[in-house]
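Chain particulars:
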Amino acid sequence: MAGFLSRFCGQIKGWIQWSWTYLWAVWFMLVVFVIYILRGPLKLSENMSYATMFLNTLTPKFYVALTGTSSLISGLILIFEWWYFKKYGTSFIEQVSLNHISPLLGGEPVNNNEVANGNANGAITNGSNGNNNSSTHGQQSMPECKVWRNPLNLFRGAEYLRFTWKANKDPLTYYDMNLSAQDHQTFFTCDADAGKPEYEIMQTAWRERKPQARIKAATEALEKNPECATALILLAEEDASSILDAEKHFKQAYKYAEVQYKKSQQTQHQGSTQEAIHSKGYGSTQEAIHRRDTNVVVYIKRRLAMCARKLGRVREAVKLMREIMKEFPLVTMFNIHENLIEALLELQLYADVQVVLAKYDDISLPKSATICYTAALLKARAVADKFSPDIASKRGLSTAEMSAVEAIHRAVEFNPHVPKYLLEMKSLVLPPEHILKRGDSEALAYAFFHLQHWKRVEGALNLLHCTWEGTFRMIPYPLEKGHLFYPYPTCTESADRELLPAFHEVSVYPKKELPFFIMFTAGLCSFTALLALLTHQYPEPMGVIAKTALTWVYLPVSYILEKLEAILPANLFQQLSRI
């Protein structure tokens, strides 16, 4: 019975919504008909004559004030609309119409600013991301945008904080740092930490908003337990003022973390045996501890490799990265292969880079700007030094040149923001700790570390400059249909504005046209301002023009009224009252 009532109410609601689509037109016609029928009692003719007399007595100053006020109001609306468009990328009037007025008329509310970031940790640990898979099939089912951890993220104390001191600007947004706090809680804590004072303090430390509070909490945790690896991680990330200091902290943390990892590895197997014999809770607890210790070891070793890379010991960094990928092949959440690619490019070991790409540039694996643009760089390296656009336009492209151009087009389709940074058409800022695949944040992070590698290959930037814009001819409607990838997601702009600092101008693709209401208010403001100026300068001619225009507007109305009076009797209202 309840199901029948709910279906019946749903049908009534749907019918009412459908009727609203046409009911307003019927209502409007009914109002017009009633007003016409009641024109006698309402004395419409006399009121119209009074209104005409009133308009004839108005001076030109009134029209100047009227048009001037209209110009001022439309100008204020234009300024607000422009500010809202620059800040949020859409029209305020359009948003109000779609989200609030449209549902009243039976439509569905639309939210253009919806950013499907999901859970940051889920996005990071997910092995694949749908919008990055190369595919020409299923173009319509475009996945949501997901935020990923930046594999090459900088050190807060040794790098981000130094920028803050120098430029007096915050390079990281609160949203970005909050995602990092969620990551750290997921990586470095587990349910088995209850009752251990140092780990309980660290659970609170990761949630602290102020850096000094986090550092103070980590110091307290070390006082409770000098071998607390996660506390040393926090101090290395945020308290160390140089890469050397950070490396010292990480080496100390790695020594303690490795011991804890080996211990939990042994107890995990023991826990599995006891779980099979006695209870389920003990084994699952040991697995959670071992998973936490694995994350700690991998994170520390990866950061040690990054320290070695920044200090110029690139071969040592490559060795550490290869060890991580060999010992922990299932730990893919840190995308260490991107760190390895960057280090190999620094050593100019292009054959080794090609081997890494052969493993990770697969249709079943998630793509990234590093994968796509490095593949393009390797192909461009074979032909870039001899490439000339004039010669190529005359004789055509060779097979190798065509392969390089196609690789560039593929990379640009995946992330169209990168070329402007590589060609230094846009200025770089410090990359965020999280990136959005195919977004401006990913392009910024890639170019920040890989621009030097493109410059090192002679002619590579020249080839990119000559060919990258040709990509857009293949995808004239990137939001609707892609060529090698899914259509470009619409949520990147809003997510990038949350990830990137306010002083950075976010790159938008595709370029948005000005909304209709901005152009309309601009035209209205200009037109009314012009009318006000002309009326002030030439009051009498403008008065004649205004009266002529009103006469022309009133002509069709008077014609319709005459026809109606000829059809309907004058005493129709009296006859209806008698009935």
In short: The longest helix spans residues 2-37.
